[in-house]
Amino acid sequence: MTVPAIHEDDVVELGLPGRMMRWLVSKDAVQAKNCSVCVIRVAPGEKVTPAHSHPNGEEVIYIIQGTGRVLVGGEVQPVRAGMAVLFPQGVVHMLHNTSSEEMKVVCFFAPPTGLENYKMHEDVDFPD
């Protein structure tokens, strides 16, 4: 048996609004039956845009590096390295790096998903 493992440097990085993303566990990388995983990098001051939801599943993020805030269902919460945050199924959410260093975040999805399963909410933003 070959161990299903991959290093993030071996995955193509996608440039998306407010972040750089690499799918580590997906149909094109390490394949799992019940989840998918990506790692994102968010530059200082950037927001992961647009706000979005996942109608067919939930997402948990784990912040490896940096500080910022999340918007989840209209509520804002500060976040920092070492924190995990649940984005419940169908709930609109957004991430903002408020620090002067790059934010690095691992995103876990169940069931497995891809960008095609994001529902965008262009009219939602953090309150001032």
List keywords for this structure.
6-stranded antiparallel sheet, mainly beta, 11 strands
Q: What's the layout of helices and strands?
A:
Elements lengths: L13 E3 L2 E7 L10 E7 L8 E3 L4 E8 L1 E6 L2 E6 L3 E4 L5 E5 L5 E8 L8 E3 L7
Antiparallel strand pairs: 1-2, 2-3, 3-10, 4-11, 5-8, 5-10, 6-7, 6-9
Question: What structural category characterises the helix and strand content?
Answer: mainly beta
What Rg do the Cα atoms give? 14 Å
Rounded to the nearest angstrom, the distance between the terminal CA atoms is 53 Å
**How helical, in percent, are the residues?**
under 10%
Q: H/E element string?
A: EEEEEEEEEEE
Mean pLDDT equals 96
Tell me the number of strands. 11
Going across the biggest sheet, name each strand in turn: 1-2-3-10-5-8
List segments where confidence is low: pLDDT < 50 over at least 5 consecutive residues: none
Give the overall form: globular
Proportion of beta-strand residues: over 45%
Largest sheet: 6 strands, antiparallel
What's the tally of helices? 0
Can you describe this structure?
There is one protein chain. This protein has no helices and eleven strands. Strand 6 (67-72) and strand 7 form a beta hairpin. It is globular, with a radius of gyration of 14 Å. The chain has 128 residues and is mainly β. Strands 1-2-3-10-5-8 form a six-stranded antiparallel sheet, with no helix packed on it.
